[in-house]
């Protein structure tokens, strides 16, 4: 009897030790995972090279979704545009650099479409592949022409034949710096994180369009619709929601006043969250002079901001500089050939911008204030 009792105690102790061992193994595993996640977030915010990170602060792209080596995933390049001179000259420069980079090694760039939401053809139809769609009904955009963008995509996706499985949504003021690979995969679109899109700072407004039962505000990524690389089937689902949310935001005075010129960007971010999409955030997607000082390791140069400097190379943002380049100075026609280079001391990104514009304008036929615009 005593031997059987001793054996029972041994079994009990063995089970106890096993239980304790399993507990500590599980604890260490969970702790390791948590620490790795924290390290990833720290790396993202500490300026680590984004080319080495395919994560955002919320979602890590699973291995099953990663692009297999040497497999091309071509995307269709699409930008929305108007028939105004301001939009035309930017579109011509953008298309020039698309053609220069499209077929280089490392590129996943497919075909190109300028989605023209003027409702009628213009004189660039033979120069740039173009699909004409209708603008919103008169007065519906209330002077905010960007509201035509989601409506244009809805029409284009419904009426056109798009061979590629993925789409890059771009804008006329984008210049391709180098061949662009497909940065998005399967259910994980890729987007550029904008510092001024801050859903968590506008909770009361966001909740008008993204109710609490849909999830936390942090589900909404700090993005706009461009640049975004996304599967066509996902964009087909998002686009109508994006359009409807944009119109609702514009018709809400508080939202319209608060979001202003980035309202349509917020609408795209909210529409994505309503469909459960989260994005791979790529800081290397774009360089935006004058705030980004260099273009190295960036794919797109976005010249939305004015660049104003003294002749000593000092930034005078908000004040017209002795040297300047601002696309808004050319609302009624294209910039002239051979723009003057910035003074010594101006950041590389601004110098590169001017050089790339000068190269494009020197090689695009009929570049002047009348023909081609």
UniProtKB/TrEMBL annotation:
Q: From which domain of life does this come? A: Eukaryota
Q: Where is the signal peptide?
A: none
What does the record say about its membrane topology?
Single-pass membrane protein
Which Pfam families does the record match to this protein?
Answer: HPAT (PF23452)
Keywords attached to this entry: Glycosyltransferase, Membrane, Transferase, Transmembrane, Transmembrane helix
Where does the record say this protein resides?
A: Membrane
Transmembrane residue ranges: 12-34
Q: What is its main location?
A: membrane
Please state every residue range assigned to the domain named Hydroxyproline O-arabinosyltransferase-like.
75-368
A single Gene Ontology MF term assigned here is: glycosyltransferase activity
Which is one Gene Ontology cellular component term of this protein? Answer: membrane
Query: What's the name of the protein?
Result: Hydroxyproline O-arabinosyltransferase-like domain-containing protein
Organism annotation: Handroanthus impetiginosus
């Amino acid at each position: 009897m005593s031997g059987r009792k001793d054996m029972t105690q041994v079994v009990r102790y063995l089970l106890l030790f096993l239980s304790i061992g399993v507990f500590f193994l599980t604890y260490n595993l969970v702790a390791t995972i948590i620490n790795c996640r924290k390290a990833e977030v720290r790396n993202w915010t500490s300026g680590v090279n984004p080319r080495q990170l395919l994560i955002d602060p919320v979602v890590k792209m699973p291995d099953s979704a990663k692009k297999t080596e040497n497999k091309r995933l071509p995307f269709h390049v699409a930008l929305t545009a108007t028939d105004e001179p301001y939009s035309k000259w930017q579109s011509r420069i953008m298309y020039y650099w698309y053609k220069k980079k499209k077929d280089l090694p490392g590129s996943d760039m497919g075909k190109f479409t300028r989605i023209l939401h003027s409702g009628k053809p213009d004189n660039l139809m033979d120069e740039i592949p173009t699909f004409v769609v209708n603008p919103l009904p008169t007065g519906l955009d209330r002077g905010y022409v960007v509201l035509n963008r989601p409506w244009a995509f809805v029409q284009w996706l419904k009426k056109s034949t798009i061979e590629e499985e993925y789409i890059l949504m771009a804008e006329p003021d984008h210049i391709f710096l180098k061949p662009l690979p497909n940065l998005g995969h399967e259910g994980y679109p890729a987007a550029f994180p904008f510092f001024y899109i801050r859903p968590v700072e506008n909770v009361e407004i966001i909740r008008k369009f993204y109710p609490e039962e849909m999830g936390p505000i942090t589900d909404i990524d700090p993005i706009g619709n461009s640049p975004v690389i996304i599967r066509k089937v996902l964009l087909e689902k998002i686009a109508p929601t994006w359009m409807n949310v944009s119109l609702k935001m514009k018709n809400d005075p508080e939202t319209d006043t608060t979001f202003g010129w980035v309202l349509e960007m917020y609408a795209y971010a909210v529409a994505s969250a309503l469909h459960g999409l989260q994005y791979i955030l790529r800081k290397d997607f774009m360089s935006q002079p004058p705030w980004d000082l260099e273009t190295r390791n960036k794919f797109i140069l976005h010249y939305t901001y004015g660049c104003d400097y003294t002749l000593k190379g000092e930034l005078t943002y908000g004040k017209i500089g002795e040297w300047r380049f601002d696309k808004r100075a050319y609302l009624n026609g294209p910039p002239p050939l051979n723009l003057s280079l910035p003074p010594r001391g101006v950041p590389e990104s601004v110098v590169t911008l001017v050089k790339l514009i000068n190269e494009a304008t020197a090689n695009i036929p009929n570049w002047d204030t009348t023909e081609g615009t």
